[in-house]
Amino acid sequence: MERPLQTVLRQPASNLLLPQPWLTETLLIPFYASVASFALLCLHFLARLTFWKQREPNDDNKVSNGHSQAQPSGIFDKFEKHMARFGGSRIFCYMFTRMIGCLSLFGLTSYTLLSAHDQAADPPADIPPPAWTKAAISITYLYCTLLCLISVSGLRWNRVTRNHAVCVLLVTFAVYAYRDIWPLATSTEHPIDASDELLWIKVTILVIVAIIIPLVIPRQYVPVDPENPMPEPNPELTASWLSLISYTFLDSIIFAGAKVSHLTPEELPPLSDSDWSKDLKNRTFPLLDAFQGAKKHHLFFRLMHPNVFGKEYIILAVALVIQALSRFLAPTAINRILYYLENDKPDTNIQPWFWIIFLFVGPILNSLSTQWYTFVGSRVLVRATALLTQLVFEHSLRIRMKAEVDKDEKGKGKDVDVDATESEKTKKGGEYLTGKINNLITSDLEQIGEGREFLDVALTVPLGLILCILWLYKVLGWSAFVGLVTMLALFPIPGYIAKKVKSVQENKMKKSDARVQEITEAISVIRMVKLFGWEGEVARRIEEKREEELKWILYSKALQLCNNALNFFITHVTMLTTYFAYTVLMHEQLNGMYSFIVCNDIRLTSVQLLRFSPACTMIIQGKVSLDRLNDFLKETELLDEFTATEFAIVRPIAETISSADVIGFKDATFSWHIEAASESLTPSSRPFKLRVDGELTFEKGGITLIVGPTGCGKTSMLMALLGEMHFIPSTVDSWFNLPREGGIAYAPQESWVQNATIRENIVFGSPFDEERYQKVLQQCALEQDLLLFDAGDKTEIGERGLTLSGGQKARVTLARAVYSSADIILLDDILAALDVHTSKWIIKECLRGDLIRGRTVILVTHNVALASPVADFIVSLGLDGSMTTSSTISGVPRSDGMLELDVEDEKEALSKTEEEIVQAKETNSAGKLIMAEEVAEGRVSRKSVKLFLSALGGKHPIIFFTLWILGILLSDWVEMLKIWFLGYWGSQYETRPASEINVAFYLGVFAALTLFMLIVYCSSYLYYVLAAMHASRSIHNRLINSVLGTTLRWLDETPASRIVTRCTQDIQAVDGPLAAAYVELVEVGLTVIGRMGIVIIFIPIFIFPALGIAFMAVYTSNFYLKAQMAVKREMSNAKAPLLAHLGAAIAGLTSVRAYGAQEAFKTESLKRIDQYSRVARVTYNLNRWISVRIDVLGATFSTSLAIYLVYASSTSAANSGFTLNIAVEFTMWLLLLVRFSNDFEGYLDIEHEPESTEAGKPPASWPTSGDLRVEKLSARYSKAGPKVLHDISFEIKSGERIGVVGRTGSGKSSLTLALLRCIIIEGTIFYDGLPTSSINLDALRSHITIIPQIPELLSGTLRNNLDPFDQHTDATLNDALEDVGLFSLQSEGTSDEGRITLNTKIASAGGNLSVGQRQIIALARAIVRQSKVLILDEATSAIDYKTDAVIQNALRNRLGQGVTVLTIAHRLQTIMDADKILVLDSGRIAEFDSPKELLKKEGGKLKSLVDESGDRENLYQMAEGTSTSSSSPDDF
């Protein structure tokens, strides 16, 4: 028997030292492997010996320390400890069994050697003696036995000796497989060692020790960090190799999911320590983050570093090569089987059963390599998601939180002049910063993840095409190259489309950014939207952005259709030209076997091309997203300390200032934008600048006030100190300094709180000190507030502090600053949200308290009279951002009516404090507010499926689904007809001479079928795409309208991040994966049925195996789908906490940086990333579990069919080839069918406010007056919640000005919400004679204007905010701005660059304006709306007294006739000249009369409040109507 190995080795034998026979004797190969192994072990030992002194003591200590506490007393304990070192008794037993097996092999071979010694004759001189070869095998087994003995005896050499033993045993098995197993598959050869009576016993033992045990032995868990091992290792880390490649380590999850209705994250395996984001960050950030030493290459090259993902991609490349090669095993097997059948089953050198096994092994090997590629790829995806999310988050902590203004949007006026260069720079910086960051860690990361398949294009597709052409050449000769030339000639067309795809994707992502920003902004100001009845306008704006996005999505889908059509066209044109060249030019016969070979090969070629096109699309989309992420990391404007510009002077040099501890500025200018230094900007576009001329220092250990009119830059001065603004030196010795060594605390004007408990917000990561904490609660006046909550300080504040009132949030923010140990405290107008009573308490107990004493406090305030007694220093700013005065408090000129604080009066006033009762938001005893994310249990709900299908079908669902499914059926039937036609064409050569066959006819029919199929496919696909676009539009609009139409209670309970996730990530799923998955479901389902039908038609008896396979597939998928659905939903929900954490950090970025809490937030981010990664890893791995099992079922089906055709059927070769091809395809389609998953969760079934009806439309003339009559009004925030208003009745006549006062929590804000029907009410409210319960909400709210304490603005121009519906002229808008004092405020010295006009750009939520400026604009908007009822809820709290006086005058004199004004205010000056004052107490009316009458009431509530005020006399004069001004005399 001729041996290929001998043939190969015989050639170079003369050049070798050993005689040729010693090399060609295969039994000596294991011995040579043993010698090589021994040599390597010696080298390893010498290497270890070299470092013995350095490494051994540490290892010994580690082992001894691990077991020093419990020394084993008995032999069994010692043995148990010994087994534990190997990972447990199971691993040890397998290792011991392997040693026994090797010992048995040594015994058997020694027996054979001794028994054959006497019978052996002298061998020929040219071959080695048999005894020597048998002795070599015995020595090999003895060596393996010794290696196994060493591996079970001690831990030190365990792995090395075990791996060497396995390698030697594998080599030995390969030799015996070649000598004795392979000949069984031939008809001419016999096993070489057949004379050995113990041969098959030896082979069996060898299979066990060399293959089975290495595959089934569990792996020992080795922690990534020996100092921090996992308490319970993930099963993936200890699973055997067989379990890994078959994914049986997931069985426990699958079966658990089948037994329960829902799997929680806690029931999933723990995240492997190799996936812990903390370890991943420590290992890779020095290579990824430029601020940790990474090179500034493109992010792609950083990710491909060997220590990041480079090694994994090498593994992926190997898997892809195996996958490409294994694809040809099944076609080769079909080729040989058809040859066997076509030639009437002749005697062949290789038995047919071998090719049948090949038909089974090929798909299985392909499946294992494909799934391993996906397994490693999904692991890379999860790790990359973790790393890039953290990278984006940490980079966000460095961003300058400048006001992001849309510079591209043109204003409506003619005087807009925006510099083009500025616009481009703003684009680069990210005009939609918050929306862009959300998109980066959702949509973009998903696109980057899908684009990770670039190896598929770079490696698999070219390799697959080369193999296809070579294989085709072997069969069809040079005609294969005709097809290749055709393919190459047409290939530039897909290349051109790929370029278009990139351009379209870039535009689509920009439009997605704009939509996400619009939604994010709408959610952030949704309370204002609902209070103003602007749901329709906001929905329209979002819909406009959505339409622009859908246009580019449609372009993308059209290009995808072109790609698919081109791939189909190129493949079949290639097939036609190949057939033409083979039959017409080469005059060859295209018999049945060749036709199916060509069909199979062309199908494989088509698969490569079909993979190439979508893979290219995904890669391009991924590259666009990766470029966006790279640009974000490189181009976003950062704080000066993170930039290397000449202006990055955050810490001055020691020579410039007298002391490093000084706090202050010298000749410094600051701006929010680096571009502000440009002199090319027009005055209307030039941003605000803060100027400090000369030297300004703040006294250490004292309290400094920063005062000035609204919009002068008081907050900016604090921001400049904190380094948040861009520093522009005015002179060579300019500087600013804020020493941080002793810590900084900061309380912003807009209180920033986290979605955590009150205690957690106050402590804010500092060590907890009970005594200090109780002092802080007392000094910040929080003790009474905590009594209002069942859970006390463990009450969850909720997102954006929804549980607390504005004053409570301000005091929690203040308490955080006071509790901290920081030496320097920066307070930004903390008194604005507090009433006089509470403000006086804060001044006396907190700012004069022992916790503040000795610390430096810088306080921005309008309440100079209230704060001046505790102040040591005062700084006054002008409207243009420049400092006007700075002096000690004694040097400040005082007005005649200056408020003087009297300590005795304060004590008397405080003694009058009544118990306050509030139910701001309902909380349970555990303090929970945020409702848990609903996770649907079981399969996809019928409602979700119905939602998508109804949106897809539109108004004519029957017509749509009929035409579309008919198109799919036609294209699939024509595809199968083409395959059958090839067999029919080839069979003609068996019955007719070649000269009688009309080749042109068959080519023409084949081309016609191809063209018809292409037209039908493109038509049905385009029809579906248009329907899918309609479904995307419909579902998006329904979701947006649902959220905008929900109740305030639901909005309070649901985190904004969760809503944004649903409106972004899930909508993206509807646009892409969901629509693609559904069309795949229908196409694949029909294809599976068609393929199974074809097999049954040609081989009827196979209906039973087909049904059996289908049943097993359904049964297996039932286990899979139940677990997969639950885990997949948890994966979606796990993303929301990440977004919430990032959103909270961005919202309070200044506070986070001021406190130096970046590391704490980074740690929390890593924790939340791990929670997401835990669910994501399981989700992706479950897909592998089902894929392997379906592939095995499919391979079993095709193999059983082949067995029947070869050994039990008389079916013709043509029909056999047709059914075999269909059966092989059936496997692929069956897998795709089972893996289909459709899941859309939304907020479509949430609690909604009543929708508008025709009957609810009020008369066109309504309202004609501002009459309000309230009868027995009670209100509550939820149906089961307690009442917050109790049987209130009052009447307000049109045109009256009503002041509403009361202690914190008395029900003032609840009353305003009840008037607008924002909460559940009982009783009746009449507005201009009509009960509000009978009026549509949009009509009611559009005719009542409310100005909240913290007004919210929309992005766009000032004109858009004042008049979003374009109903008024510029003159009207300017008059309103003048009425509220904006122009008079600016006329006092505001430079052109700081002047606000109708064309001024407003950032999202008004971020580029001070709170005071926002309140002024909100008041102007109220005047423009011309509502008959105007509600002011602390609307002037952040405005200086002088501007407040102007506003109050405008409200008295500039509003139209009959306008009723309800004013809620802590400043008594604001409401003392009202017509009547309504005093609320614990949700009830305590007093309601004119101020004059109420002040006469002894013991009255209002009189008590006025008497406590330091401005008592002036307030009495105002009530009497004799005061000439309502302005406070503390104004400068």
TrEMBL record:
Organism the protein comes from: Sphaerobolus stellatus (strain SS14)
Segments of skewed composition (Basic and acidic residues): 1505-1514
Record's compositionally biased regions (Polar residues): 1520-1532
Keywords assigned: ATP-binding, Membrane, Nucleotide-binding, Repeat, Transmembrane, Transmembrane helix, Transport
Name assigned to this protein: P-loop containing nucleoside triphosphate hydrolase protein
InterPro entries the UniProt entry points to: AAA+_ATPase, ABC1_TM_dom, ABC1_TM_sf, ABC_transporter-like_ATP-bd, ABC_transporter-like_CS, ABC_transporter_C-like, P-loop_NTPase
Topology in the lipid bilayer: Multi-pass membrane protein
Region (Disordered): 1505-1532
